[in-house]
Amino acid sequence: MPGPALLTPPNSDLPTPKATAAELVRLAYSVTAPHLLEAVARHPNTPVTLLGELAARYPEAVLDNPALPLLRLAHGQQIRMWTGLAVSRLAAVDTAPEWVQELAMRHPEPQARWAVAGRARLSQERLGQLAGRGEWQLRAAVAQHPDLNAELIERLSTDAEYSVRLSLATRSDLPPEVLNHLRKDPHPLIRRRLQMGR
Which terminus of the chain, N or C, has fewer Cβ atoms within 10 Å? Predict the structure, then answer.
C-alpha cells in the first residue's frame, strides 16, 4: 500500500497529482481544513460519489475539476443521484455549464430548480421551462427575472395562481396591454399593488 509520500508532496499537505482515489477519500474523511477539501474536490482522481458530497460545500472547486466532463459521460447515472443540495449549489454558480442547469431541472428535489431560477442570467428557453413548472413559487420567482421576454410576461399575467400575477405586478417594465389586464385582475391585492406602485 502506498505511503503518505504519494499522497502529499514535500512541504505541503495538498494531495499530489498522482494521489489515488482511495488516498483522496481517506484524506477527505480525515481532515476539516477547507483548502484541503477544495484541493480534493479539484483533483481529477477524486471518485464521483465523493465529488457529489463535496459539491454542497465547494461547488466552484467541483466545477473546476478537470475530470468532471469525463465523469459526466462515464458516470452520468451516479451524478444524477447527487443530492438536491449538491446540485443546487452547483447550479447556482454563474459559470456552471448548461448541463448542470439541465441536471438541476430534472432533479427530483425542488431546491435544485430553485437554484436555477435564482441565477442572474438565464436563456429564454430555460425561463420558459421554469415558467411551466407546477410549483407556483417557482413561477412567481421567474415572474421577477430581469431577462423575462414579453411573451413570457404575457403568459404569466394569466397564471391561475394569483401570487404569480402579484409577483409579476411588481415589475416596472410591464407592456401596456399586460399592465391594463392586471389592473382589472379579479384579485384585489394585484389591483392594489398596481395602484400603489404606479
Answer: N
